[in-house]
Design brief:
By secondary structure, the chain is α/β, with parallel strands linked by helices. It has 6 helices and 11 strands.
């Protein structure tokens, strides 16, 4: 649990960040099902050529469109996070695999005093129609490895449906480009001593198109991220307090 005292708003504004790349056919299964009380929806587009932006604007005229600065899911999320003006940030995939109606479950968990709510397909009430046997075994092995190294109890390390208070980004930096971003976020939230809770979530099959995820390439990137984070001293910059020395604390 973080030692920083942050007063959370009674009625937080919710920002939803959706990375896309050629997801025009899937957006009708996502955008219309977002809760009505969302503060803003930010679509970060990775140079789509199938009319993704136009379809998003047709379905949700108020949507904010950002052109991704680089490549990869991690880069898209970093760009999206920087553009958020809400109090809570929700990460949502655009392929129809994540259920937008689950967002209130994540928000409720944060309102109960948690800093980071991470989705899990492997808790009671969760599940997946999309994960292959090979990916399931790889995820389980990586989760066990992380739990042993970091003293965590993650049941699902590589799932992209997560929510957190925006102020967490004051102490957690996203500096990766690929699908390892979920693992990096999990580990850095833990290393920053934030209160983490897992939320049961159900993953559906991608509706149209093919995923850019490559089991072996991206699995290796996740493993490399784990080893790097374990070997690196994480520097936490504390906010200056009047009358005291503002320095660096190493965990």
């Amino acid at each position: 649990m973080s030692t920083d005292v942050v007063e959370e708003p009674a009625f937080p504004r919710i920002s939803v960040v959706i990375p896309t790349r050629n997801e025009a056919k899937n957006l009708s299964h996502v955008l219309p099902y977002l809760p009505s009380d969302i503060h803003e929806v930010i679509l970060v587009d990775g140079h789509s050529i199938d009319g993704t932006i136009e379809e998003a604007q047709r379905l949700l005229p108020s949507i904010k469109i950002i052109q991704q600065s680089g490549k990869g899911k991690g880069n898209a999320l970093k760009d999206g996070f920087a553009a958020c003006t809400g109090d809570i940030i929700v990460m949502l995939d655009a392929d129809g695999s994540a259920d937008p109606t689950e967002i209130p479950n994540f928000v409720a968990a944060l309102m109960q005093g948690n800093d980071f709510a991470k989705g899990s397909r492997f808790l009671k009430g969760g599940g997946s129609d999309d994960i292959t046997f090979l990916r399931r075994m790889g995820n389980a092995g990586l989760s066990l490895f992380v739990n042993a190294l970091f003293g965590t109890r993650f049941s699902d390390l590589c799932y992209g449906y997560n929510a957190f208070w925006k102020h967490c980004l004051d102490r957690v930096v996203i500096d990766c480009d690929g699908f390892e971003v979920e693992t990096l976020l999990n580990l850095r939230m833990h290393k920053a001593n934030y209160r983490i809770v897992e939320i049961p979530s159900f993953e559906f099959l991608r509706i149209h198109g093919q995923s850019n995820l490559n089991t072996f390439r991206d699995g290796w990137r996740v493993l490399r991220t784990i080893v790097t984070e374990r070997s690196r001293l994480h520097i936490v910059i504390r906010q200056p307090v009047i009358g005291s020395f503002a320095g660096l604390e190493r965990e």
